[in-house]
Design a protein that fits this description.
Elements lengths: L3 E7 L9 H5 L4 E4 L4 E7 L3 H20 L10 E5 L6 H4 L4 E2 L2 E2 L1 E2 L2 E4 L2 E4 L5 H21 L5 H17 L10 H14 L11 H8 L4 H17 L13 E3 L12 E3 L7 H4 L7 H6 L2 H4 L4 H11 L1 H4 L1
Parallel strand pairs: 4-7
Antiparallel strand pairs: 1-3, 1-4, 2-3, 5-6, 8-9, 10-11
Length: about 300
């Protein structure tokens, strides 16, 4: 059973909180954000792990008292992430701040993404699809006669960002969710007179738009390209393992940055960022993954997947 508990704290003033890690201990697992938010978490296997997390939480509270920072306990939550079948005894532990029990929630919106306990993200997908349809209604009411050029500009700037924001995090793994997102674009492309009677594929070709499914894959591949080329902090990509063949001995099939596939017991792990991209990444030619810049990678990847994108 995997369970991760996060204590989400919101302070009332903007302060420097870099010393919070030292106060909680070198072994503390904590995320700090520039807007004075913090996420304290632990891997819970038994009740002792939960007690350790509470101890770290107490140190967190002591740090707040030392710096005269008042924590809003009403805005502090605890949440667990786990499989469908898990030990309920570890989930029954009540975390406290200053003796006040924290509210345990089954979902929480963090940095614009609605997380649920099972990481299905079905609630988040329903939320963003609803927003996209609302935006589509605004466009439909205010623009009676839409040219193809005008529609593409409005669609890309107002509607599509709703269904693409942070999609590397909440990438859908169920077909029903994938279809729900794609239907947003299916409906949007019917707004243009003269195209509504055509098939979805014909409308996309006429508007030179890719499917949202391809946009999801493209976004993932761009992020993976950045990880492999050290565009992010090294400590953040420790789980990204790849074999580099740089000694002028290339594989007969593949490229110099081939990913090492991992054996996964659970379907949730199979949909982990790197695992779901192994086959696609390893199938891309060497001149694409060896691009000198992100923009160059985008252009070369689009040329290869042009047929898939439509």
């Amino acid at each position: 059973m995997l369970a991760f508990y996060g204590i989400i704290a919101k302070n009332q003033v903007i302060i420097y909180i870099n010393d919070l890690i030292e106060s909680c201990g070198d072994d503390a697992k904590i995320y700090l954000f520039a807007d004075d938010d913090a996420r304290l978490y632990n891997h819970i296997k038994c009740i002792m792990d939960a007690e350790i997390l509470q101890t770290k939480n107490d140190k967190f509270t002591d740090w707040a008292h030392r710096w005269l920072v008042k924590l809003s306990t009403k805005q502090c939550k605890s949440m667990s992430f786990h499989q469908w079948h898990y030990d309920t005894t570890t989930n029954s532990f009540t975390y406290k701040i200053e003796g006040v029990p924290l509210e345990h929630v089954e979902s929480y919106s963090d940095l614009g993404v609605l997380f649920d306990s099972f990481l299905l993200f079905d609630q988040h997908i329903s939320k963003i699809v609803s927003k996209a349809y609302s935006t589509l209604g605004v466009i439909q009411r205010n623009f009676r006669e839409l040219s193809r050029e005008c529609f593409v500009v409005l669609y890309k700037s107002l509607l599509r960002p709703h269904v693409e924001y942070a999609n590397t995090v909440w990438a859908p793994r169920r077909m029903c969710d994938i279809e729900k997102i794609e239907k947003v674009q299916m409906r949007a492309t019917k707004l243009i007179r003269g195209l509504s009677s055509r098939s979805y594929e014909e409308r996309l070709r006429a508007l030179e738009l890719p499917t949202l499914c391809y946009r999801q894959l493209r976004g993932d591949m761009i992020q993976l390209f950045k990880y492999v080329n050290n565009k992010y902090d090294a400590n953040f990509v420790l789980q990204l393992q790849y074999k580099s063949v740089l000694e002028k001995r290339y594989d007969t099939k593949g490229h110099r940055y081939k990913l090492v596939p991992q054996l996964c017991k659970y379907d949730l792990r199979k949909r982990f960022f790197v695992n779901r991209l192994v086959k696609v990444w390893n199938s891309v030619p060497d001149d694409v993954v060896s691009a000198c810049s992100v923009n160059s990678f985008k252009s070369r990847f689009d040329l290869i997947w042009h047929g898939f994108s439509l």
